[in-house]
Design goal:
Blueprint: H1 2-7, H2 10-16, H3 22-34, H4 39-51, H5 54-64, H6 67-79, E1 83-84, H7 85-96, H8 105-116, E2 121-125, E3 132-136, H9 139-149, H10 152-161, H11 165-169, H12 179-182
Antiparallel strand pairs: 1-3, 2-3
Helix pairs in contact: 2-4, 6-7, 6-8, 6-9
């Protein structure tokens, strides 16, 4: 299979693809073990998977993230993208305290962040200020979280728990929720 990927030029397409991610490689290798592929059909399936990677994010979201990891990712999505760590921490504290013990919040936040950083999210530190911000690991993660947060029940919870104006206003789908639905 590897020889075919290289010889056909598919390996370069995979590495250069906007949705390339080590998790994608892992997922496709797992699929290869359990599905009968020819080298050519595997190469084709791999590129198709990169073109629509929602299934990998859905699988990871449902099967590999803790409840706090899921909530943190949804909270991050509500903030709209590049977000300072402190802003995310405050938003998440308000977002999650409705259901969790606030005394363990710091530990829960750090554990959830550890789950997401490097896969769904990517952190970076500004050299001048030392401040840490987070962003989506790649565009396919944003596409996935957009599909999750556009679900009416999740959008309603985001609006209910929002602490920043931008959490409510940056998505058109959330603007259609009526006040009566929030009560």
């Amino acid at each position: 299979v590897c020889k075919h990927l290289v010889a056909s030029g598919t390996a370069r397409k995979i590495v250069d693809h906007a949705n390339y991610n080590p998790r994608v490689i892992e997922e496709m290798c797992e699929k290869y073990k359990t599905t009968e592929y020819t080298p050519a059909s595997f190469a084709k399936a791999f590129v198709e998977f990169l073109n629509d990677p929602s299934s990998i994010w859905s699988s990871a979201f449902e099967g590999q993230l803790s409840a706090d990891g899921k909530e943190l990712l949804i909270c991050f999505a509500s903030l709209g993208g590049l977000t300072p760590l402190k802003k995310l921490e405050f938003a998440f504290q308000q977002f999650s305290d409705a259901r969790h013990d606030p005394f363990n919040f710091g530990i829960r936040f750090r554990n959830a962040l550890r789950e997401l950083d490097g896969s769904f999210l990517m952190s970076h530190q500004e050299s001048a200020t030392g401040k840490i911000s987070l962003q989506y690991h790649n565009p396919s993660v944003k596409d996935f979280t957009d599909s999750i947060t556009s679900q009416t029940d999740i959008a309603r919870e985001i609006v209910r728990r929002a602490v920043f104006h931008s959490q409510v206003t940056h998505r058109e789908a959330w603007k259609t929720i009526s006040i009566d639905e929030l009560v």
